[in-house]
Amino acid sequence: MGEKKSNGKKIAVIILIIVLLAVIGVTAFILIRGQLNQSFYKESIQTAEKYVESENYEKAIVAYQNAIEAMPEEEDGYLGLADVYLTQGETSAAKVTLKKGYIVTTSPKIRYMLDGIEDGSLLVKTPGEESEKQTLEITGKFGWNVSFIQKLENYTYQDFQAEYGGTPDIVKVARGELEVVHPDLAATCYYEDTPEFDDIVDDEKDRPDETGMPNMLVLDSLSLLFNNFGGTASLSELQSISSTQVTPVTTDERTYVELVNGSVVVRIETDAQGNITSDNAWNEIILTEANENRDRKGLLAGIVIDAVTGEGVPDAVLEFAAEENSANSDSTQTGSDGEFSIELEPDTYQVTISAEGYTAETFEFEMEEGRNYSGEQFIISPELAEGTARIVLEWGAEPRDLDSYLRGETDGGDSVFVSYYNRQSTSGGSTIAELDVDERSGYGPETITLYDLNGVYTFHVVDFLATGTFQEYGATVKVYLPGQSQPEVITMDPNAGVNIVWEVFELDHGELNILNRAPADENLRSDSK
Question: Which of 48-62, 366-380, 500-514 bottoms out in mean pLDDT, i.e. has the lowest?
């Protein structure tokens, strides 16, 4: 019996030793792993800072993200990453980064920076952004960006992903409440379950349901909301576009006005007289009918735009000719702002758009089953005068600001150069070429009209902010020439290797020579940006 007890004690001691060794091993592993993480964290921060110094912001972002992943409880990674986002003008991404960091760290520095962004004291402009464009005369009528409003009224989370980037930053504010920032949308989208719609947020996955729609947005830049907006707008201009009376409202926090467009309610901070004084003014976009129509499918909402003014074309007729089943064919007409909506069956359509004084143009549009389409733009050109040509640039949400450059020489020896900072080329009081529209918030159109075809000209497109994403996102140029019923459409070659400048075509006495390449020299002019 005593021998059995002795063996039992030996076994207990052995087990205890094994447990102690295991604990020591786990502790040592945790310590070593912590030391490795700390070392990697410091290296990542140092690497990020070097990239910031050299203005290589894309790599700086990756390095800061690596630092945060290694040591999420440290504040410097969040602060550095937010600072880079601010430098790039991505205010929403900066706020999301800081909110995530504050939840983990409760750092006073992070809270201070976040408060500074929200009250406007820490907003930083993108290097060079708008520095020369602020002095440009704003042409055209101030008004709503109808295309963007249509998106807000109809876009689901899935639609925002498809349009503005599929890997957004998401902050969980509370159960059933999220803040979402998409990579290519300078705004924060707020999703929240309501008593009527308790499935907007997927709490198991901490993301919105694919069919969920945001209840509210806050924009980094008001230029997304308005056309021909130069950073300021008077109370009378705001009243002219609102469907309700616009009167300044003063609270303890601010003075603001409330504008109404359909189901969209917009609140924007103003001065005491109700004038908008900044593109970055406090705002909130309330979507009063969010999620009420999210199950409806087959809706196409869009706008027909004048290529020369950038404004909507009223009373334009759209004829949808279905290719697969002619019974699906239909037609509609635009309203006073050029907007339209129509319900269509799944099919591929040839869309012919005609309006008085415009060249009739045909587009192809595919309506997929189970989908809605909102904010679709169809750009048409006023009829050309004899001996003239028109160049229309179109693109997507990114890069945000593309610029058209036309240069060349007439047979009479006149040098021609047209861009955003030299809108006209003239000779003897006559205009040779003119920039009609300079679009700075994505999509286009950006338009040049050439009035003298007796010469040789080249056309380039420049990514003003040098984002490095031009080739990734691409662009399209339409060239309207005399005697042609439809424009020549040039889409960026996916293998062109474009960085900042896209060399699109040469026009030799009205004959089009498509180049579609990256130029040998990106410096278009010695004093250009």
Answer: 48-62
